[in-house]
Design a protein that fits this description.
The complex is a heterodimer of chains A (477) and B (489). Chain A contains 16 helices and 16 strands. In chain A, the strands form four sheets. Chain A has a nine-stranded mixed β-sheet with strand order 2-6-7-10-1-11-12-13-14. In chain A, strands 5-4-15 form a three-stranded antiparallel β-sheet, with no helix packed on it. A two-stranded antiparallel ribbon of chain A has the order 3-16. By secondary structure, chain B is of the alpha/beta class. The longest helix of chain B has 21 residues. Classes of the chains: A alpha+beta (477), B alpha/beta (489). At the A-B interface, loops of A face helix 9 and helix 10 of B.
């Protein structure tokens, strides 16, 4: 029997704050833009320029810390992290070293039905770097400093996770909590939420930590899962062969579906941290902390629980609370049509599809919730023919009009009139005598073909149940 | 040739606003003076005659229209070349910024322009303000107008020499460890280092952020009071500038000093002090006592650690502040073929920085390094607190402290340049003030046997610049050292 290895995983997450301005100057902090257009002497690191703290960034970080159950420092400071790279124009990054804004928090995750607490070591505030663009065929590199100086929050966990699934569960829960704070886009693809797992493995039953590696460049939950799984496997295999794991930073190679070494000797880097002399130490008042605490939204976990208590399936609740705006929208729908389960089905089904297809954010839905609720009620209570539901929903998104007028305009209200349906049924029997005879002869299953023909004749408006009843009456006696 | 250049800043302002002289006449007199002496003094790095004349003409037009004129109207001002001037080269005396033209003005420059001051010239300095003699400039060695074989002091040596030679009546310097006061003392001028946070540092190229302050250099006390009134105050772009009301410092010149108690620190009056300096201080004490003050001996017991503490703190901060000069975004970049990024950084910096700057970056980097941080940087911060406490204790008994500005008068060019330690030790009487963040003013109090100016500094509590001005003005009313001009051969 070969040796079993237990993975030990900690996560570093960087969150780019979505504030109107950068952290230490008044440049706009927007994603994108022509290179080097959202810059000033401060974020360009020009000689003589000085940073000034944007208090909104401090407040946003405090809110992030509080939502993770952290202690908030009442006295804190910024430090300089010194290193050379073309994307940091000052030759140092303003960060926090020994006095982070927030410390000692935790986050509870659920994996395979089991609850687990992940310790949060620290949450601190720093500035983002610029971006390099390499032009391989010209052997050139260019620097874009639009991103330089944008407020960046770093959230570091204890090494408390022991599988890739736990790491991803943590990340999902963290993202949900953070997106509720409305302080960041939390977009992994665009890089406003970046995750760097630290991974080591050790023989099961031992407690000494093994040598860890860090993985960078992960831009989706899926890639986090794959890369951590791969790294656990790679390290375990190496140890089994009697090799050592090198302490290094690795990158996820999407094409090769494996992690590859990026740079080694991380321990050799001496950042020479020292207190940033251009920024006086910060004092955070108790009042400020309490104001921040009072501004915290109900966290996703509690909202999910409340939804489940209303009789909504776990799965539906999970999707709805993923975004605070969507959860709010759901609640708003219920005040018009109080059928939680039915509304939740719509919101995780056709409605969500429309949002996704149209590229509409769940935080920014253009349809009044009353309309969505009315649409749901009409669909459920037979006010809209089944076949027309998708059409009405699309029209709702196209026009924003109320669903009752839309049903009238489109002429898609459901036909339930016995006589009207009876006439259509008669016509279908006459045109499909062969099938009708089979039904009369006892092959009852053939009746569905006639139902389908009648629906087609009604252009989908006939109530299919009534159609079936009348057909039965006429053919089976 | 008009002798307008000989007037004090206050008299020039008066001549201009009263219509007795035009701004063009004033700057032409100073341009002529520059033509006459600059080749011997080498105080200036950039002087754009057209730009100077254009400013003067605009001011004359403004006066013509009867528009209100600012406190500096009609006064040509020299700017130390580590203070950013939009559209005008700002080199910090370094090869690495030899052709750097800032796209923005330092806060103090905007204030000067708003007060109708004339930006006359950018003045020479020790590279990145690191030095006590102006010999560390990458471009030229400035000479002391009182003796062309001697240094003007540093690092604001260009500003001091320009004022002493009559090229400008007022100038800006920066003082990190004495860089305004020491050259003022070597050149027979008034130089003031304001309280840390009194003047915005925005746009002054940082040497040591926690010590740097911008301040005025002038022939008379009134000139410094005038310029300080304009440049002082909270700046939203400098988080370390302090929001405290700015008085018209000229009013302090009218105040009485009668009844004030002054302290003379024993540690600043060591036996090794030259007798000319010692005698000058004794004379000052007599004059001040005659003006109604009492002078007593005080202790500043941590003085002996000030130079060591200063060089650890200043160089540590400098090693980080100068990291941005890596050739990636602006300034000099090596033209040598390079194999990788690290080589580009190191060659650029090797070529761009002078020896003294390299020495300080190296020692500062070492002091911040893992394993040495506690023994150097952290220890220095602790001693710094002790030095500040020394002053706090002293100010319980005295209103201000007086001491020689420098333990020596202007030394010979080349005399100390190869002996960094003896050069550093000339800062022994000025650095503690910066470590403690206090305001201090140096003023001329006599001449040595060789005819070299001697300076005395008055050190006050935070934000008591007015008291320093009152004392200095009281002294100048009674004396005429500040009225003398050097004979430039």
């Amino acid at each position: 029997m070969s040796q079993q290895y237990e993975p030990v995983i900690g996560l570093e997450v960087h969150l780019e704050l979505h504030l109107p301005q950068k952290m230490f100057c008044s440049c706009p902090a927007e994603f994108g833009g022509e290179p080097n257009t959202q810059v000033c002497p401060v974020c360009l690191g020009l000689p003589g320029s000085l940073p000034v703290v944007n208090r909104e960034g401090v407040l946003a970080t405090i809110r992030a810390g509080l939502s993770l159950g952290c202690e908030i420092a009442t006295f804190t400071k910024f430090d300089r992290k010194n290193y050379y790279y073309p994307d940091i124009p000052k030759g140092y990054q303003i960060s926090q070293y020994d006095l982070p804004l927030c410390r000692k928090g935790s986050l509870t995750i659920d994996v395979n039905g089991k609850s687990k607490v992940v310790g949060i070591t620290r949450v601190h505030l720093e500035e983002d770097t610029g971006k390099l663009a390499h032009v391989d065929d010209r052997n050139e590199s260019w620097v874009d400093l639009n991103r330089a100086g944008i407020a960046l929050v770093e959230i570091v966990t204890e090494p408390d996770m022991h599988s890739a699934e736990e790491a991803v569960a943590y990340l999902k829960e963290l993202k949900a909590i953070l997106s509720y704070l409305n302080i960041s886009d939390c977009n992994m693809e665009e890089g406003s939420l970046r995750c760097e797992p630290n991974i080591s493995v050790r023989p099961v039953g031992t407690s000494t930590l093994g040598t860890k590696t860090e993985i960078k460049n992960l831009n989706s939950f899926k890639v986090v899962l794959q890369s951590v799984q791969h790294e656990i496997h790679r390290q375990s295999a190496a140890l089994s062969r009697g090799e050592e794991v090198a302490q290094e930073t690795r990158l996820w190679d999407e094409a090769g579906q494996k992690t590859v070494a990026m740079r080694g000797k991380e321990t050799a880097q001496d950042y020479r941290y020292f207190p940033e002399p251009d920024i006086p130490p910060l004092e955070i008042s108790k009042e400020e902390i309490e104001t921040a605490r009072a501004s915290l939204p109900t966290p996703p976990k509690e909202r999910r629980k409340a939804l489940v208590e209303k009789g909504i399936p776990d799965y539906n609740a999970e999707i709805i609370v993923r975004s605070q705006g969507y959860a709010d929208y759901f609640e708003a729908c219920l005040s018009t049509y109080n059928e939680p389960h039915k509304v939740s089905n719509l919101l995780i089904g056709g409605f969500l599809q429309e949002l996704n297809q149209r590229g509409i954010s769940e935080e920014d839905i253009p349809i009044p919730p009353e309309h969505t609720a009315t649409y749901c009620r009409l669909s459920e209570e037979g006010g809209i023919g089944k076949a027309a539901r998708k059409q009405v929903l699309a029209a709702l998104f196209d026009t924003g009009k109320d669903p009752e007028s839309l049903v009238k305009e489109l002429g898609v209200s459901q036909v339930e009139d016995q006589d009207e349906i009876g006439k259509m049924v008669d016509q279908v029997i006459a045109e499909n005598e062969a099938i009708a005879s089979q039904v009369r002869g006892g092959k009852t299953s053939a009746i569905m073909a006639l139902v389908g023909q009648t629906m087609k004749l009604s252009k989908g408006r006939a109530n299919p149940q009534i159609v079936q009843e009348i057909l039965k009456k006429k053919l089976e006696g | 040739m008009s002798e307008l250049w000989k007037l004090t800043s206050g008299d020039l302002h008066e001549r201009f606003t009263s219509g007795a002289a035009s701004a063009v006449e004033i700057v032409e007199s100073h341009l002529d003076r520059a033509d006459q002496v600059e080749a011997k003094i080498d105080a200036i790095l950039t002087l754009d005659r057209d730009h100077v004349l254009a400013q003067a003409k605009a001011l004359d037009a403004k006066r013509e229209k009867g528009e209100p004129l600012g406190m500096l109207a009609g006064i040509p001002i020299g700017i130390k070349d580590n203070i950013c001037t939009e559209g005008i080269k700002t080199t910090a005396g370094s090869r690495i910024l030899e052709s750097f033209v800032p796209p923005y003005n330092a806060h103090v420059i905007d204030k000067i322009l708003a007060a109708d001051g004339i930006i006359f010239a950018k003045t020479n300095l020790d590279e990145f303000a690191m030095g006590s003699s102006c010999e560390n400039s990458a471009f030229k060695v400035t000479k002391n107008p009182w003796d062309l074989t001697r240094v003007p002091g540093g690092s604001s040596g260009g500003s001091a020499a320009a004022v002493a030679a009559g090229i400008v009546p007022l100038a800006l310097g920066t003082d990190t460890g004495g860089s305004i006061r020491q050259p003022a003392s070597f050149c027979g001028l008034v130089g003031m280092k304001p309280t840390y946070g009194r003047v915005s540092r925005y746009g002054a190229l940082a040497f040591a952020s926690s010590l740097d302050q911008i301040g005025p250099i002038s022939k008379d006390v009134a000139g410094s009071a005038r310029l300080l009134s304009v440049i002082a105050g909270k700046d939203p772009n400098d988080g370390t500038s302090i929001d405290q009301e700015v008085p018209d410092y000229r009013e302090a010149l009218e105040e009485e000093m009668f009844g004030l108690t002054l302290g003379l620190p024993k540690e600043y009056m060591s036996d090794s002090l030259p007798s000319s300096i010692r005698e000058a201080v004794d004379d000052v004490v007599l004059t001040l006592e005659a003006l109604g003050t009492s002078v007593r001996a005080i202790d500043l017991p941590h003085t002996e650690y000030a130079v060591a503490t200063y060089y650890v703190v200043a160089n540590s901060e400098a090693s980080s502040n100068l990291a941005r000069y890596d050739g990636m975004h602006y300034g000099h970049r090596t033209k040598a073929p390079i194999k990788n990024l690290a080589e580009s950084f190191s060659r650029t910096r090797s070529e761009g920085f002078g020896d003294e700057v390299k020495r300080r970056i190296m020692t500062g980097t070492h002091a911040l390094s893992s394993g040495y941080y506690d023994a150097y940087y952290l220890k220095a911060l602790k001693v710094r607190r002790k030095i500040r406490e020394d002053f706090e204790t002293a100010f319980e008994d005295v209103d201000a402290v007086i001491a020689p500005t420098s333990p020596v008068t202007a030394f010979k060019i080349g005399e100390k340049i190869d002996d960094p330690l003896s050069m550093y030790l000339t800062d022994i009487l000025t650095v503690a003030v910066n470590l403690a963040g206090l305001p201090a003013l140096s003023l001329p109090v006599g001449f040595s046997g060789e005819g070299l100016p001697i300076g005395l500094q008055i050190i006050g509590q935070p934000f008591e610049e007015e008291l320093l001005l009152t004392l200095a003005q009281g002294y100048q009313v009674e004396t005429d050292h500040h009225k003398k001009w050097p004979q430039i051969p």
